[in-house]
Every structure is written in structure tokens, then in C-alpha cells.
Specification:
This protein is of the alpha/beta class and 370 residues long. 45% of the residues lie in helices and 9% in strands. The two termini are 36 Å apart.
């Protein structure tokens, strides 16, 4: 049984961090970083992925790199956000699956094939499904990544996706709380302002989270600004206690793990260093803190977490609660389950099934590429 008391202070600090890195192998620089930080999770991007055998060798090395098994994650939504395009080929976006007859079956088959491929390649977390509602403004980067504009339908299809992933042994992540569908502008580059009244947010954007609050092991918080929820001072929802602790935890009643979106994105990079960002997100109520690229910020965040654990700056009960959530989820999904052996045949079968579902992504590049 994973217990925080059995971890060193460096390991406890590291469990709250999800980190990205450059390169396609577990080389000396990455080994040094993982030994220093003990990351709770690692997120891979297209820059880290070449072919199936290389990916599995890398995820195996990452899984063995720390004493506590890490979350190994990527964004494999389908459509434009398809990290494994070179391995699985083009895949259908959520809106294409939702728009056809037999949508539930199509989503289930897509989710099953995706989860099986991820397991065979060594991943245990998929940063999907998208719970945002599609909207009229293409600038927010959502578009066909969403299952549609009807919140009940989005909740139904996202539940199919999430349940299928869980049955296959892959952890799904619902995103981007409290909803980016009405945003003008992309959080990767700017802080979008969403002028929706609280009752409308509750009945539309938040409905999928309310419906799936007991199903999703992890919810990711996005970086938009909602005056009706946060007041008059513009700041990302990720850093808002009213949004994370007040709305998601207390009002909706979500008890799972809360993960930030990348704290290096344009919406949140306001001259803060890694620890300033991590501290603000922790105080808002998040458990997992994501830094997708810059080693300096990762080290700043880790050093700050170590100091906070030693001094009580953030509060021992607050950090202990996050550690319990993280270690409990790892115990259920990583420790008690045997790691799936690599199978080239399984990856090929997943690719063939995904090809059979057809459906091309809409125009435009991957808005999440780093």
C-alpha cells in the first residue's frame, strides 16, 4: 500500500508534478531530472514519439525511473489532437463520431481501440475526453474536439468514452473545467474572457462535469477567466480557489484528482516562476501541477514544494490530502494491475479498427502541439 509516510520529502514534492521533456530516449539529462524531481507523472508529446518500439522502450524506462510508479500520459483525443498519428494513422475527431448514426457504438469502439493501443505502448493515462461544448468561435481551439453543443449529449458520449477506457485499464481525464466552448481565443496563447452568467454555466458548460463527477478519476482545469465565477480581477481559473475548491470540489462534489493544464501556457505565464505558479494552483485546490517543457520551471516548482513541505507554507493538511488522492489512484490503477506487455499485433489491430471508423479532422493544425 502506497503511503506518504514511506516517501522522502523529495519524493512527496515530486508526486505533485507532471512534467514534459525533450528527446526520444531516456538519456543522461532526463535520468538526472527524474532522479532529482521524482515526478508523479510524465506527459509525452509528438516530439518524444517516433515508432511503436521506440515509444514502448521509452515508457518502460520512464516507468522504472522512479520508486513510485508514475502516471504516463499523452493527449490522444483523435482528430487534430492525435499524438500517435505516426503509429495509429489519422483518427476520427469527437464531433465526427458524435454526428453519425450509432454514435455510442462508434465512441465505444474508438475508445476501446485507443485505450488498448495506449496500454500496449506503455501509457496508463489519456488526457481525454474533452467535456467542452462546441461553439461558434474557431479561435478557442476546441471545434471538432468536442462531442457537440448539447451538454446532455456531450455528457452521455463522454461517459461512454471514459467507461470504456476504465474497463480497458487506461485512466481517462475530463477537460477543460469549467468549460472552454464559449471562449474567444486559445489558452495556449492568451487568457480568454468568458462572459457567461453563472446560471448558464451551471446548466450548460458544467453539466457534463456534474453528470460525470463520480466516474472520472481525474479532471483537468483550464486557464480561461470567468468573471461570474471569479470576480473582477482577471486571472486563470486554474489559479482560482472559487473555481477549483469552491465550485468543483464543494458545489459539484468532485472527489477525484484535480490536474492543472500546462502551467507554461500563454494564458497563465504572467511573469511568475515555476514555484509561484505551482503555489497558486495548489492554494486554488489542484493536486497535480503540469509543466510541459522547461526544466528550470520544473526545478523551481520542485524546490518550492520541498520548502513548503518543510516549513508548512502551504499547509501540511492541504498537501497531505493531495498526496493521498495521488497515491490512492496509483494504488488502484498502477500498483494492483500488471503492466501490459508490448504487442505489435495489438497496436496494428487498434490502427485497423480506428481506420474503419473513418472521419477526418476539421481544418487547421493541432492547437495543443508543443
Amino acid at each position: 500500500m502506497l503511503q506518504a509516510r514511506d516517501l522522502s520529502i523529495d519524493e512527496r514534492a515530486g508526486q505533485l508534478l507532471w512534467i514534459g521533456f525533450d528527446g526520444t530516449t531516456y538519456g543522461p539529462a532526463l535520468e538526472r531530472l527524474t532522479r532529482q524531481v521524482h515526478p508523479g507523472g510524465l506527459i509525452l508529446f509528438a516530439r518524444n514519439l517516433e515508432d511503436a518500439a521506440q515509444v514502448r522502450a521509452l515508457t518502460d524506462a520512464l516507468f522504472r525511473a522512479t520508486r513510485i510508479p508514475p502516471f504516463l500520459a499523452l493527449d490522444q483525443e483523435g482528430g487534430r489532437v492525435n499524438r500517435l498519428k505516426g503509429i495509429l494513422g489519422p483518427t476520427a475527431p469527437a464531433l465526427s463520431l458524435a454526428s453519425r448514426a450509432g454514435a455510442e457504438s462508434a465512441v465505444r469502439r474508438h475508445s476501446q481501440a485507443t485505450a488498448q493501443a495506449l496500454k500496449s505502448l506503455g501509457f496508463n493515462v489519456n488526457l481525454a475526453p474533452v467535456l467542452d461544448l462546441s461553439g461558434p468561435d474557431p479561435s478557442n481551439g476546441i471545434g471538432d474536439r468536442a462531442f457537440g453543443e448539447d451538454p446532455r449529449r456531450v455528457a452521455e458520449l463522454a461517459a461512454v468514452f471514459a467507461r470504456t477506457h476504465l474497463r480497458a485499464g487506461t485512466i481517462p481525464v475530463g477537460k477543460h473545467f469549467p468549460g472552454l466552448g464559449a471562449a474567444r481565443g486559445d489558452t495556449h496563447t492568451t487568457l480568454p474572457l468568458i462572459r457567461r452568467a453563472r446560471p448558464l454555466l451551471w446548466s450548460r458548460d458544467l453539466l457534463p462535469y456534474r453528470r460525470l463527477r463520480r466516474l472520472l478519476p481525474i479532471v483537468m482545469v483550464g486557464h480561461a477567466y470567468y468573471p461570474s465565477l471569479q470576480g473582477t480581477r482577471p486571472h486563470p481559473a486554474t489559479l482560482s480557489r472559487a473555481v477549483v475548491d469552491g465550485l468543483l470540489r464543494r458545489k459539484i462534489g468532485y472527489r477525484g484528482l484535480v490536474l492543472t493544464d500546462d502551467l507554461e501556457m500563454g494564458a497563465i505565464d504572467q511573469g511568475l516562476d515555476g514555484w509561484d505558479q505551482a503555489r497558486a494552483a495548489l492554494l486554488a485546490g489542484s493536486d497535480g501541477l503540469m509543466f510541459c517543457r522547461t526544466e528550470e520551471r520544473i526545478l523551481q516548482a520542485h524546490d518550492g514544494l520541498v520548502r513548503a513541505l518543510e516549513s508548512g507554507e502551504v499547509g501540511a493538511p492541504r498537501l497531505a490530502l493531495s498526496l493521498r488522492r495521488i497515491l490512492s489512484l496509483k494504488e488502484r490503477h498502477l500498483v494492483r494491475r500488471r503492466r501490459t506487455p508490448y504487442s505489435a499485433g495489438s497496436v496494428v489491430r487498434s490502427r485497423l479498427l480506428l481506420e474503419s471508423l473513418g472521419g477526418l479532422a476539421g481544418p487547421g493544425p493541432d492547437p495543443t502541439a508543443r
